[in-house]
Design goal:
Blueprint lengths: L9 E4 L4 H12 L4 E4 L15 H5 L4 E4 L10 H14 L4 E7 L3 H11 L4 E7 L12 H6 L1 E4 L11 H13 L6 E5 L7 H12 L4 E4 L2 H10 L4 H14 L10 H6 L6 H10 L5
Parallel strand pairs: 1-2, 1-3, 3-4, 4-5, 5-7, 6-8
Helix pairs in contact: 1-6, 3-4, 7-11, 8-9
Length: 277
């Protein structure tokens, strides 16, 4: 039985991001006391500026922790360790961490949260469906040409609405304490197959082109993408997509008691929202 902790003040880090915005909006819609954690908030939070951490933690009981731009970044572990220590010192009683599948750096950060001495939940996610509509792939898809250095491996893309729903129940009930949920979508798709599904659903011709990592990095550099983001994408495309994650899990079903959202349903929602039009 779910017992809601309605008196908890909740801090949502990355409250303008893909998962954080959904977590924040859901909690706010339920009338729960929630504080946004972003650089643009009235009380700003910045992972790169530790002086912003203590003010947003004041009178906070639970925190949704998502590291930007990705938990596998070299500086992420130290930042999460320092933030976790400060959060516990300031009275935080629960941490819900967004983590990544098949990333040793992410698993190291998970151990920091697990060993913090407070309640915790880990959401270990596969690649987001929303990367095709709210991220770096949205513009190429709309332009009708997607060039990627991705090997032809399957990836069970997860809908971030599912991630946010799990985060909300983990933050507001005790039923998910001490749980690691590895969450994926219900089926495997290569990036090329995913693009083809979007093309069929939208009725738009979208050309998919496989290019080398060097070509991709050069293309990003031409568009003046920051070097650290190029480095991140290089790591994700070449290391994480080496087949290690080529399997589906039942994490969403375990957490929510229902099947994970299929990629086709994600596409339907994106089209209804006017994406790619």
């Amino acid at each position: 039985m779910k017992t809601k902790n309605t008196a908890n003040r909740i801090l949502v880090l990355g409250s303008t991001g893909k998962t954080g915005s959904r977590v924040f909006n859901s909690l706010h819609a339920q009338g729960l006391p929630v504080r946004p954690g972003s650089r643009s908030a009235a009380l700003p939070f910045d992972w790169d500026n530790q002086s912003t951490w203590a003010p947003v933690l004041e009178h906070v009981d639970a925190v949704y922790v998502s590291y930007q731009p990705d938990i596998c970044m070299p500086e992420a572990l130290a930042a999460i360790a320092s933030f976790t220590q400060l959060a516990v010192k300031n009275g935080v009683k629960k941490l819900v961490l967004l983590s990544g599948r098949g990333e040793p750096e992410a698993q190291a950060a998970e151990q920091v949260v697990i060993n913090a001495g407070v309640d915790w939940t880990i959401i270990r996610a596969s690649w987001f469906c929303q990367n095709f509509s709210e991220g770096y792939l949205a513009e190429p898809i709309q332009a009708g040409h997607v060039a990627l250095p991705v090997p032809p491996v399957g990836e069970p893309f997860v809908d971030v609405d599912d991630i946010a729903e799990i985060a909300v129940v983990a933050l507001t009930t005790d039923d998910h304490n001490g749980k690691i949920y590895e969450v994926t979508g219900p089926r495997m798709l290569t990036f090329e197959e995913a693009i083809a599904e979007i093309a069929r659903a939208t009725g738009k011709p979208i050309q998919y082109q496989h290019i080398s990592m060097d070509e991709y990095a050069g293309m990003l550099a031409e568009y003046e993408v920051p070097k650290e983001l190029i480095s991140l994408l290089t790591y994700l495309f070449t290391v994480v997509l080496d087949g290690r994650n080529e399997h589906v899990t039942d994490g969403v079903e375990k957490a929510l008691g229902r099947k994970a959202t299929d990629f086709s349903e994600y596409i339907r929602k994106a089209i209804a929202a006017g994406v790619w039009s």
